[in-house]
Specification:
The structure holds two protein chains of two kinds. By secondary structure, chain A is of the alpha/beta class. In chain A, 33% of the residues lie in helices and 17% in strands. Chain A starts with a strand and ends with a strand. Chain B is mainly alpha-helical. Chain B has one domain. Chain B is built from nine helices and two strands, in the order αββαααααααα. Chain B has a two-stranded antiparallel ribbon with strand order 1-2. Classes of the chains: A alpha/beta, B mainly alpha.
């Protein structure tokens, strides 16, 4: 059943912009991205939207709908009352390019600061072996589609532009956690996570977990375990004492601090 | 309204004046947390400083257990090494459960949102001009959570002991009929203490630090099958850590209130046998 949907869409660029009202015909079963595409096709041919797969897997169409960071392609119109006005804005943490498109290069800069896995020597037969139970834990983090909604909602950078320099953000904390849990990696990233990535800036208010379209338990399974690993290294007198008297933790054997 | 050059209104970002465009009742959750936690803090502070009406044999209030100060007769099952302590005996012991909860990863989320508005809710701009997270004193002390966890395990054991003792016979003044003061007894207080200790253990064992200590710190689960199994159990409990935090907060206050009402003879214990 078709009906007229009232929308407010942010139009503008870095120089300025405003929320503009539109009415667009939509049908049952459509998502917000469908409505924007129809708007683009019928009324505003120059509306800028970044999108790609329309299946919630490419992470391109991140935006904010009624103030909440969401994927445009995964937000059903049936979640709203037909009479409700839907407000769509670009992500408010990143520099705007035009309309709903933002410059997310901050995230790629942070990605470059993170050392990739450095694997140890191969087994005698030239192969590398990992037990299934050891790799399963990191698999959850591999679901990340890099939509950067977690980075967008994180108040550390959303509300404090000056923190961007010293804070990698939740997407990269789960990358740190994934690599730190890697059974073959030889890097010890705990110091890096605390110092350069600013893990201590996170106050675990869990908005990243709330907005993740992949349902990754970013805080409970990634950030908090990483914080606990930093505690192991720096704030646990028992671990410190163990190191001093030669009872080193075997967990970190073969790893080099980066 | 946001300021003109800060946070979501920084120069390069989309110019939107509103600090949030959320239309749902995002303020309800932090407000509820604020009201309930404040009420608990006021109640717990009053009770902790009272220094009386914490023991109604055989029940001992969890706020005063173990009672190590100059406590009333029958309340000190672990002696009175701090008998010289001039203030309420609760103040000697409460620092441990208080520290455990203050540094708890769930409570941190709750009070950073509800009390410090950092942020009040997701996608709602916080009012502060600067932010350093948990990198500086005093918030860097949040890293001591696991030490409070060790203490919380000991406190949990003591409260478990108290719950067993809650089956003791009631004193003669509570006797009804013939000879009910001998043998084991169970009353509403016993039941409340059982419920409380179950929630206390669920909360303590579902702790993120506990999860890390039992197995989360390992990189090779395959080499530690027992610890891995323990980790999976704690992980399952951990999913509801916030729920156990709330339930145990209420249960501990309700047990204390019940014992207070008994000790002041406002009510009489409901006896099951």
């Amino acid at each position: 059943m078709a009906y007229d949907l009232k929308m407010r869409v942010w139009r503008g660029d870095a120089e300025g912009g405003e929320l503009t009202d539109y009415t667009v015909e939509v049908s049952e079963g459509e998502v917000v991205l469908d409505a924007l595409h129809r708007l683009q096709a019928t009324q505003t041919g120059d509306l800028a939207i970044r999108w790609n797969c329309k299946a919630g897997k490419c992470g391109s169409c991140s935006a904010e709908i009624n103030g909440r960071p969401r994927l445009l392609c995964m937000t059903r119109l049936s979640d709203f009352e037909p009479s409700e006005t839907i407000t769509v804005t670009p992500m408010r943490t990143f520099p705007v390019i035009r309309d709903l498109v933002t410059d997310v290069s901050f995230n790629y800069e942070k990605a470059r600061e993170l050392p990739y896995a450095e694997l140890g020597p191969r087994d005698a037969d030239g192969k590398r072996r990992m037990m299934q139970v050891d790799v399963e834990r990191g698999q959850e983090f591999r679901k990340c589609i890099e939509c950067y909604l977690c980075q967008d909602v994180c108040h550390v950078v959303r509300d404090h532009e000056d923190n961007k320099q010293h804070f990698a953000g939740p997407r990269f904390f789960i990358r740190y956690a994934e690599l730190d849990m890697h059974p073959l990696d030889t890097h010890d990233r705990r110091k890096l996570a605390q110092d350069a990535a600013g893990l201590g800036m996170c106050n675990i208010t869990k908005c990243c977990t709330e907005v993740c379209p992949e349902g990754i338990h970013i805080t409970d399974n990634g950030i908090i375990p990483m914080k606990e690993r930093v505690v192991d290294r720096k704030y646990d007198p028992l671990v410190w004492l163990g190191n001093k008297i030669g009872l080193r933790s075997k967990d970190d054997e073969g790893r080099t601090e980066v | 309204m946001a300021t003109t050059d800060h946070g979501v209104s920084s120069p390069t970002r989309a110019r939107i004046d509103a600090r949030t465009l959320r239309q749902d009742r995002w303020w309800l959750s932090p407000l509820t947390t604020f009201v309930v936690f404040s009420a608990f803090v006021v109640y717990a502070t009053v009770r902790a400083f009272m220094g009386r009406d914490y023991y109604a044999s055989p029940y001992l209030s969890p706020f005063y257990s173990p009672c190590l100060g100059d406590c009333v007769e029958g309340a000190s099952d672990f002696g009175q090494p701090f008998a010289w302590w001039p203030l309420s005996a609760a103040l000697i012991i409460l620092i441990f459960p208080l520290g455990f909860r203050m540094t708890c990863y769930y409570y941190r989320k709750a009070y950073y949102r509800a009390f410090w508005l950092s942020p009040p809710a997701c996608g709602v701009a916080e009012p502060h001009g600067s932010y350093s997270g948990e990198t500086r004193f005093p918030l860097i002390l949040q890293n001591l959570h696991r030490w409070f966890w060790y203490a919380a395990v000991l406190v949990g054991l003591v409260l478990t002991f108290d719950t067993v003792l809650a089956f003791r016979p009631m004193p003669a003044e509570y006797a009804v009929g013939d000879g009910e003061t001998s043998g084991i007894h169970m009353g509403l207080g016993t039941l409340l203490m059982i419920v409380n200790i179950v929630f206390i253990w669920l909360y303590t064992l579902s702790c993120h630090s506990c999860r890390h200590i039992v197995g989360g710190r390992l990189r090779h689960f395959s080499k530690h099958p027992v610890r891995y199994r323990l980790w999976t159990w704690v992980s399952r409990l951990n999913e509801s850590h916030g729920k156990w935090a709330w339930y145990s907060l209420f249960s501990v206050a309700i047990v204390d209130l019940y014992i207070f009402l008994l000790a002041t003879h406002t009510i009489q214990d409901v006896r099951f046998f």
